[in-house]
Amino acid sequence: MPEGRLTHSPDGRTPDHEGARYARELSRHLQWLDSFTGAALGVLSAASGIYTYLGVRSLLDDTGAWTTFAALSYSIAVSVGIFVFWSYMLRLLPAVRSAASKLGLFLSMGLGCVAIIAMSSWLNAAALAGAAAVEQHLAHTVQNYQSALERTHANAIAGQSLARDVARVRETFDGLSQQEAGGDLSGIAGRGAVFRLLTQKSDELQGLEEQIAAQDRAVSQAFDQGNAILSRMRALSVEPGAIEGRSVRFAEEAVRLSGIIAELRQLNVAPLVNRAAVDLRDSVVLPDLDATSAEGRTAQQATIASVMGLLADRAETLTLASNEVLALPEAEEIEYTPLSAADAVIRYAGNFVPSWAGAIAIDLLPAVLVFILMVTQSAIRGGLGAHSVEETMTVSELRAALAAARALDIPADPTPVEPEPKPTLRAAE
């Protein structure tokens, strides 16, 4: 058997001195690490409290002394809570041995981690990425407004395109009126009843066409104004400076842009053309038949009936064209809602994963230390095994024990003292 590997204890057990030496080495490392673990935990707790303070301040509108005191009190409470919680976990969880105790403490640690995230981590994320998250909200709002502006403008342009349909119908009635003036329709040349009816509808369509054409410039100007407002809103979302002031100016521009979008909706002539198509068919003022003969009046009546059928057909054409424009999808109603830094971080959490990871890590990093201590303590217990204290004592520990015994003046091998015999009285003779 190699020398110094195994020795026999008085009761016959053979402890593994290599395992005991390994356990003592780990214990020395833990003692050295424990000398600054508390300070490190305090630094982490203080750092979390500072960012929590900044996050709380971003939620509070007032800037007075009481607000500062309230935010400071909350951040101090968070720092103390984190320090105390992880101090408990670092001491107790590695020390327990039974499965039930470990499970109970694991559940307690999980509940504590959730509480820490709820009371601190999201505020830390707000302090780390709050301004960037608000800027992200502004940029997202600009995109929504741009989509709404372009959609509304496209619908308005589609409405303006109905001017061509109206012009074609008007040209039809203009041509028929010229034919009637030559007597090609009713057989009666001149400006009779049929001519006046055709001219009446042609004038109505001419007025509608002019009304549509008059809105071209208004649509173009509104779209240009909307784009100019969008440019200012984009600049506000990225320019340097405090985000609070930029948010106020951004809200003002958003109100103006909402008005421009509403104006573009009103400039869409599709509803006007739809109503004009109905009037073209239904609102007809029939002129008096002015032919001098019964045959002429009969011809005029037949021609007017044909014109009325044509009016119904052309009205149906305009109705279908206007309904196609009205069926185009409308832009969604956009309303800018200002968000605080904390709310913006939560809404756009997917865009700020690194910031969230850092905010949570600064609070939950001690959990890694807890697991390290659990593994190390388990290794120490495995190295020591089920040995008695005297089997695992080092030379220095033995010397310390002997020195303590001498200090207590306890003899190493005490000799039993026999009691003196009691004197007996001899009876008097």
TrEMBL record:
Superkingdom, natural source: Bacteria
Statement: the UniProt record of this protein carries the keyword Membrane: yes
Keywords: Coiled coil, Membrane, Transmembrane, Transmembrane helix
Transmembrane portions of the chain: 32-54, 66-91, 103-123, 356-375
Coiled-coil region list: 198-225
Name of protein: DUF4407 domain-containing protein
